[in-house]
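Long-time lurker. I teach an intro course on protein structure, and each term I like to show students one example going from raw sequence to a predicted 3D structure in token notation. This year I'd like something fresh instead of my usual example. Would anyone be willing to generate the tokens for the chain below so I can use it in lecture? Attribution to the forum is fine with me.
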Amino acid sequence: MPQVKAQEKGLNLLKKGQKGFIHAVFSRFGLIVVMLLIQTALLLGVFIWLQNYLPHYFGGVSVLRIVMMIYLLNKEMSGAARTTWLIIIMILPVFGLLLYIFTQSNLGHRLLKKTAEEITKETREIISQDEKVINRLKNESKGVLSLSRYMMRSGCHPVYANSQITYFPLGEDKLKELLIQLKQAKSFIFLEYFIVAEGEMWGQVLEILAEKAKAGVDVRFMYDGTCELALLPVDYPKRIEKLGIKCKVFAPIKPFVSTHYNYRDHRKILVIDGHTAFTGGINLADEYINRKSRFGHWKDTSVMIKGDAVKSFTLMFLELWGMERKPEIRKEEYGRFLSYDAKPQYEARGFAIPYGDNPLDKDLLGERVYMDILNRAESYVHIMTPYLILDEEMENTLKYTAERGVDVTLILPGIPDKYVAYALAKTHYVSLLKSGVRIYEYTPGFVHAKVFVSDDKEGTVGTVNLDYRSFYHHFECGVYMYGTDCLADMERDFEETLKKCRRVTFETYKNEKLFMKIVGKAAKTIAPLM
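-- Reply from a regular --
Happy to contribute to a lecture. Here you go:
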């Protein structure tokens, strides 16, 4: 057993102040610095030692720019990403070319992409679709039926009925119920989180996990490799495993190889015995339950799912957990853990479609679910999101929905966690306001919730932000709901949160600090890379 410190609540495996070693210099940040230095060195070399060949150098650079422009204009990518790369290549051709080659070559991730494709093929039909549920959905909403068909293209995302969903408007609410559910686990517990930090929240969870593992429960814990940048030491999995808990780091940061901003596991999934699951925006750190104040009051949300739909979250976890395993081992575990019966059976209204978004395929599932809700809305679409870094397609969809007369209202943070992202969000304000989109900022602090609710009949809660990282570069998840009881709770929470917000108008935007406007407009040129 590792040396653990019993806190007032929970376990602590680290000494006070002990954090992970800062590896940022070895990841994308380090590569950017190195390539800038290379460009600077080349320029100095040209001017000092090759003065007689300057025309040849500048001629070569001009040819490079032209070739790259032709290539990028014919490359399949979003318009915003294409514009960003064209700007970089025009201003810094050598640096831009090196950066483009690095980010597009996916060093360290080729095997990940190949394995992800194999797993998608393995699991595409592993959970059978109940045709009775599809027939019921066909009679209730042909629009949602069409959405479900699209979602099945990306992977195994069946439609479920009779799944009970509970909405939690704060991290404190989720934690209270989560601890109750964990204590009832008998067979297995799966946890998958983007951020984990020692403190009261993780300490309470870890204490129960250790007890359950000791009692013979199969406990598996996976967190994203970015935690190693500042939150957890590299040897943390070994410390966890000494408690009897199986632990993995998804895509660990590797020196000068990891494009650590890309292909991160941004999902938040917790599954208990195949009958209970949690997802949403809430990570395992004290700011998420307001035990630690970083940016004022932390507003976040989550849902608990009970019933048949939990099977999809079990599969999502096993897919990423099995990335480094042999196919035969993965298949054995699919059969073992997906066979758990989600008893007791629930009599619940509506339909649920749990979904995972894979950045290694071409289906922008998280963005498409949001767009589908917007395009079919008749009365209102109410949205909570921490970030607003939009591609052209999403911005136009928000504007078009508002221009159709639909009430499109966004709640964003009043206190930002990232200044540049906050400034970038504001660059979209004027365009959205002109189309009639209503924008509010949460004055008590930071909104980290990812919530869409529309027309009292459909919505989604999950991990997908309204930004490029979530749409294009991260593994994400969520649960789409149609006609479920918790939609009323989601709308009620939105209205209550709105009372604590300040409204954004043309006048308030005009009064924003000039420096923030400059930062936002400058950052917009490289928004797809942020």
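Some talking points for your students: The longest strand covers residues 474-482. The CA atoms of residues 354 and 479 lie 4 Å apart.
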